[in-house]
Structure formats: structure tokens, C-alpha cells
Amino acid sequence: MQELKNYQEELKIKAEKVTGVAKKYPETEINLKKFREINETKVRTVTPEIMVYGIYSAGKSSLLNELIGENKAAVSDIPTTDKVTYYEWQGYKIADTPGVFAPIAHEEVTQEHLKKADVVLYVMSTTGSNEKLENYQRLKAIADAGKKIIIVLNDKNGDMGRNEEAIRIIKQKVAVNMKSIGIENVDEKYCIVTINALRAKKGREKNNPDLIENSGMNELKDVILTELKRTSSFEILRNAIREIEGNLNAIIKTIEGQENSALIRKMNEVLETFNRQKMSMRSQINHFIDMRAQMLGETLPQIIWENRNKKDEIEKIISSEVENLNKKVQEEIQNQLKETAAILQMEIESFAEIKINAHSQDAESFKKILENLAAVNENLSKEISTEVGEEKKSDMTNLAAMNITANLVSESAKTIAKNLAKTTIGKALAGTMLGKFAGAVIPVIGPIITIVSVLSSLGSIFGGNDDRKKIDAQLAKQNEQERRRVEAEMQARQELNQKCIYMADKLASELKKSSDDGINEVLAKYEEPFKKEIETRKQEGQQVADDVNNLREIFNEYNQLRAEISSSIR
User: Taking the model in full, what pTM does it have?
Assistant: First the structure.
């Protein structure tokens, strides 16, 4: 599940760390002031808002409690509020609104708050209240306001898992009713997620993850996060983080200028190169993942639909497509790693060639770094003997000749594969998100029976008025059945398309995190000798180098966070 993280808190902690380091250096005052200003005006003022709206007896408060994970909202089948109540949670605002049909006439309050909402959850019950026209008039008002609607069907009857056909019929009716009141481009303006709030509550109180998973709440959170990433609030956060990165880089450069040691300066240059390469790889790999995931989200529905009558095979098909995406991503990572490794190889060779006064404090540190780098490369390579003498390990020519590219690519492949294995990619995801869905929701659409022509020919044979009326009645019945069949097919295809899009975004998030973690883990092996020496210098009073290293780590975290809150779907 993509977690609804508290991004505000994460950014606040990072800002405090940066300020704690930078304020020790008066030279950073101008940039630090700008850094604080960005955080005050462009980060802390942004609080994404989730609005819970709909029929007051459908389970709005129950849903809200399960989103928050606490029993904060009063649960009742009669309206208990005549105003919008806000709950602060994880850096988000969740608005509990007066329900539709509530006797308390405060609809204008809800409408005013609707304008500020980033995501609107419109709650209906599967018990039949979705049939009322007033519900769809409210839905049209939301759509006309330019909001993407997440319709949440609260399964009060407990049909989830035992009577999926009943759920499918309700979803079909919702779509038909929305179109009937004039909501244009319905497929683009809404999605439907079914939950069982009572089941989720039991799972939370009993600490039972299976009950929570079977309640549909995890899927709902995935959908909410995907839609939030496409809103203006998250765009403001992304832009603010981008500004912070530029400002933080200026602070780092200013502090670096305080260091006079040639060795320390060169170590910082090497680490800066590593950092730039990680950012470049992250950007290119994430872009590749986004494109491939989007292609999967667009092509998978057709593949599944073409095999809809082979339900036993659908899970295998999905797993195969996901595995193919996984393979393509790993191939792209390998290509990117080869280019990065070549650059790092040159950087380390450049480091090995710097001139250090043999009698200076830096001489012993320089030798130690070279030895550690050789040892790292030796450990990553199976072809290099484990018995390497001290002289050979510290020899600059040997260091320059070592094959960083082969070792880095090989080790990264293993590390990334290990990280991917920990995620829900593959059969587990296919089984829980789409395999189960495809088997339960997609109706088996058989061939269209040409009963119209058959009955028409019978009429010409018998020719009687009574027979003609019977035939006409049968024709009308058959036409109505065919119309409903077509509507069911259209609804199933639309829902399948949405499921695949959200699955693609989930896959993209998993792949990005796994590849980023794997690359960071392997590159860290080559960064470690430099960082260790900086740590040693810190113990000897060389605080500047350590501060620069800490800020560089935070810079990388900002970049990772900005990539995380980007959306892979459009």
C-alpha cells in the first residue's frame, strides 16, 4: 500500500536539521533566510484537504474514523452536525460535512468548503440509497466544480467477498444514473471504490491486517494518494522542494568554502559527483518507470478484456506483464549504472592522482582512503583475489585500473532484485489487486444472439396478430436485456481501466523506491571510505567537512521526497 505519509512533518524535520547546521556559519545568513522563507510561505501553509461528503446514513463518520485510525467522529444514522468539522491527521485536513438529506439545512456551508477540497470522497451505502436522484444532483455539483470524485460504496450488507455480483450491479447503476443527469465525461471524473468500514474497524481494533486488507481500506488509500499527487497542493509542494534544493545547494557551497584542506575539498568534490549522479539516475530511471507504467496501465485493460472468458489465466497474464515491466526497468537501471560507473571511475582515478604533501596531515588519510576504495572494489569482485598486500592495495596504478563498472553493475543488480523481492510486485500484487478483481467483476459476455431476425421470420410464417404481439413483447424484452448487457460491459471496462491505472501508479512507486534504495545501497560502498575519513576529521576538529556531508545527505533526501510525490499517471 502507498502510505498517506505526513509529508509536512518530514519537511519540517529536514528544515530543522538544515537550520541547525547552517546557522553555525554566518556566511550562509542570506541563503538561510531564503530557505526559512520558502518553508514558512510555501511548505507549512500547504495542507492537502480530503473532504468526506455524501449520505449521512451511509457511513461517512465510520469511513473517516478508519482513515484516521481512531474513533474520533461520532457514528450515527441521524445527522449529528450542522457544520463542517475538520480533523488534522498526518499533515492532511479531513473535512466531515453535513450529509445529503440531513434535516439541518446547511448545504451552503458544505458547498463553500467544497471549493477548497483537493480530494472529494462521496460516500454511498450499498443498501439502496444510491438510487435517490438527490445524490446524483450533488455528484453533478461536485463534477461541475472541477473535482475528481472518488465514490466510496460502504458495504453495509457485507457482500464483499461473498456476493460480488450485487456489488457490480450497484456500481453499474451508479454509472448509469450519473450519465442520466448530464455529467459529461463520466469515466474521467469519477472512480468507485467499495469498502466495508465495519470490517476495517474490527481489523484495526483486533490488529488484524487481513481484515483491513479485505475491507478495501488499503485500496481506497492507494486511490486517494494517487489522486492527491495530481492536485495543485502537491504541485506546490513539489515546486517548493525544488526551490529548497537550489537554496540548500548554495548553503552547501558556502560552507564548503570554509575548508582549506586540499584533501577535504577533493573528498567533497567526489561526494558531490556521487550525489549528482544519484540525482541524474533517479530522474532518468523514474521517467523511464513512469512511461513504462503508464503504457502498462493503458494496454493491460485490453489484454485482460480479450482474455475475460479465461479467468483462470488472467492472474498469470497480469503477472507476466508485471514481470516484463520489472525486467525492462532492471535493464534500464543496468544501462544507467554503466554510464554512472564510468563517471565514478574517472572521479576516483582523478582523486588518486591528486598531489598530497608527504609530510602533511593529509598524507596518512589519503593512503587510507585509497586502501579502503581498493578493498571495496575487491569485495565486490569475485575475480579479484582476497589476498592483496598492503603495498598493492595502496598503489595508485592498481586503483585506477580496477573495474568499478563491472562490479557496480553486478552488485547493483543483485541488491535491486533483493529490494524488489520485498515489495508487492508480481503475483502477490496481481492476486490481490487485479487477479481477484478480474475474476469477480468482469462479466462473461457471450455472443450476441440474433433473436431479432429469428423472431421476425417466425412472424412472417404465423402472421397472426396475437402471435405478432407476443413476438413484439419478446423483442422488447430481448432489446432491454441486450441494453443492460451493453451497459454492464461498458461499466466493467471503465472500472477495469481505472483499476489498471491505479495499479500502474502503485507499481511505479514500488519500482522507484526499490531501484533508488538499491542504487543508494551499492553506491554507499564507494562513498563510505570518504565519509569515514570525514568522520575521523570531525573527531579531530574538522567539523566543516562533517556539516557539508550531513547537508548533502539531506539534499538527497529532499530530492527523493520530490520524486516520491510525483505522479506517474495523467
Answer: 0.70
